[in-house]
Amino acid sequence: MYQYVSHRENQLLLPDDFFLPFGGKLNKENRWAKLAQLVPWAYAEGKYAKSFRNSFRGQKAVSIRVALGALIIQERLQLSDRETVQQIVENPYLQYFIGLEGYQDHPPFHPSLMTHFRKRLGEQVLREINEIIAVEAAKSTPDSDHDDEPKSGTTSKGKRTTKRRSTSEEDPNQGVLLLDATCAPADVAYPTDLNLLNEAREKLEEIIDTLHAPQIGRSRKPRTYRDKARKEYLAVAKQRRANGKVIRRAIGKQLRYVARNLQIIRNMASRQPLTLLSRKQYRDLLVIQELYRQQRMMFERKTHQIEDRIVSIHQPHVRPVVRGKAKARVEFGAKVSVSMVNGYAFLERLSWDSFNEGVTLIESVEAYKRRFGCYPKAVLADQIYRTRQNRAFCKAHGIRLSGPALGRPVQGEEATEQRRVARQDARKRNAIEGKFGEGKRRYGLGRIRACLAKTSETVIALQLLVMNLERRLRDFFVSWLNRLLSYRIPAFGNIFEV
């Protein structure tokens, strides 16, 4: 049961009104006090309440201020569920951030509720909250790229344009849109065919033990050769550099052990129901059946590629994403397409299946128009976005797409000007690469620790939300510092001038 908070409770409590039993007051300039003013709690509550049934029975649910506030604290400080609750108990500023009226020395909720918070909010709700914050902040932030627009450029035919548009002439397009994609790796072990089959075999052996438990003393347990299979697996897994023939032979043996165990389970299921299995065991059984089918097909075809390939039994939604990076050619997780305007990031597409990020340019530009009321003046993206369809779309709407034009390369001064513009675009586009680095180094985007597909999507959207909130805080500090530096005493000039 969820109850909407009253108008009085929905108003943001001032730091001076927060009760501290040991005396004193909260600092208004504290980062958590500032963050509490940036989150649209009322809008989030309307979305959060839809995840509950319209019933007056049951325990009263935790408010959106507590749920979303706890998730923001967790991602901002990179804590576990239990440690997040402990930090909230120990820190009065965190208690103020989640909406408590005074300090309390006991947990406001149980750590197990953090999973339910992630499920109830969801990726779509967090994406909408992020857009409210980021759009408002991006509009209020001055466009630093406006003054850096090239005085001359090249048209789609390669002709140089030296005449700059006058300031009095209206320009329907405004701003610069940065586009790029990255992978948010899941917290899974690096998958190999041999390790996956060995793990599947061990889980099937546990399932056989569970199904045979009621028959102990009345019938003999089917033989599984688990000791022999384990020795054969370790004989190859412990080798420092096993050649392809040895690995293929070991995979074939593990496939036969898995097939034998699956047949045993089918025979046992004909005599007794599978309700003896736990929910997790039944789910693992379904995943292993599909895993065996894929591995058997790849083994027979002598290939390592198959559609919707399972790389983790524990997280079957995870897919391999080929990125071609120096650190790892293949990553395992969700592929995320992100756009950025004035330093604020927007989640454009999130998918567990790999996709060509070039197809997201048109929808990202249309989303930009929906947010800001106009098309961007320029789109800065790498080569994969420069398809003929995207070039035609940008040309039709008066948008400059970064990169060289199609056709014969130009020579002389035009080539020099193109190289200058390309260097300038690359310098500006580094901002979105830095945003990915910030997310992966500081906010956990480099390893998603959530296990379910839905909660993992929530965590990714939440990390972008936290990064935008931190960017908003930095902008507040910079604007305050600029006002301080520009303050002048009439008789002495600038206070920082010597």
Automatic annotation (TrEMBL):
Residues crossing the lipid bilayer are none
Return the annotated region ranges for Disordered: 137-176
Domain annotation Transposase InsH N-terminal: ranges:
25-120
- Basic and acidic residues bias spans: 142-151
Domain Transposase DDE spans what residues? 379-470
Q: Which InterPro entries match?
A: Tnp_DDE_dom, Transpos_IS5-like, Transposase_InsH_N
Matches recorded under Pfam families: DDE_Tnp_1_2, DUF772
Q: Which NCBIfam families match?
A: transpos_IS5_1
**This protein is called what?**
IS5 family transposase
